[in-house]
């Protein structure tokens, strides 16, 4: 199970990995290396997030407030990641921007609904609500990751 300190450490580590991607070079001849570095970062980040989501499933109903704080922190991280990726995609094409915005809007709406349901969860509904919330977080991450890895 995760305690509050573990969540804060994980949040800091996630922030560092989101905010500090490894770019291979800055001139146009290094574009492929840069794309490969970004894809590698996305895959590594996806693996870290998957592990954290697995751990999140261990939250008990008594840890509901910790779970809600964790979901809120993850939602903010995903929002920041979306802003970064949408700025990168903006240079690609208008269609890419629209596609990403559509996927993100849908995923973030789903996440907002899941978070509201988690706030209202009872002990009887906790496991289902928690699973739906974790799935909504995963879907939001996929909306961003799919755009980052698409060519």
Plain-language structure description:
- The chain is mostly helical.
- The protein has a domain of 100 residues.
- Helices cover 78% and strands 0% of the residues.
- It has five helices and no strands.
- Helix 3 runs antiparallel to helix 4 and helix 3 packs parallel to helix 5.
- The longest helix is centred in the N-terminal third of the chain and has 26 residues.
- The termini are far apart.
- The N terminus is likely disordered.
Dominant shape:
elongated
**Helix content bin:** over 70%
Low-confidence stretches: 1-34
Q: How much of the sequence is in beta strands?
A: under 5%
What distance separates the N and C termini?
38 Å
The gyration radius over C-alpha positions equals 17 Å
Major β-sheet, in short? none
Count of individual helical segments: 5
Given helix and strand content, the structural type is mainly alpha
User: What would the average pLDDT be, to the nearest integer?
Assistant: 74
Task: Tell me the number of strands.
Answer: 0
Q: What is the chain-wise order of helices and strands? A: HHHHH
Signal peptide: 1-24
Keywords: Signal
List key phrases describing it.
mainly alpha, single chain, 151 residues, elongated, 0% strand, signal, disordered N terminus, 5 helices
Layout of SSEs?
Layout (H helix, E strand, L loop, with lengths): L3 H16 L11 H26 L7 H26 L4 H26 L6 H24 L2
Summarize the structure.
The chain has 151 residues and is an all-alpha fold.
């Amino acid at each position: 199970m995760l305690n509050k300190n573990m969540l804060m450490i994980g949040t800091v580590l996630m922030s560092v990995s989101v905010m500090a991607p490894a770019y291979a070079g800055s001139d146009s001849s290094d574009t492929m290396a840069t794309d490969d570095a970004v894809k590698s970062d996305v895959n590594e980040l996806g693996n870290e997030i998957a592990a954290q989501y697995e751990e999140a499933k261990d939250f008990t109903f008594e840890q509901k407030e910790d779970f809600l704080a964790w979901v809120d922190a993850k939602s903010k991280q995903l929002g920041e990641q979306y802003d970064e990726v949408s700025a990168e995609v903006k240079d690609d094409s208008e269609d890419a921007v629209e596609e990403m915005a559509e996927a993100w809007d849908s995923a973030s709406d789903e996440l907002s609904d899941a978070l509201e349901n988690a706030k209202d969860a009872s002990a009887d509904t906790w496991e289902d609500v928690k699973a739906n919330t974790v799935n909504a977080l995963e879907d939001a991450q996929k909306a961003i990751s799919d755009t980052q890895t698409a060519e």
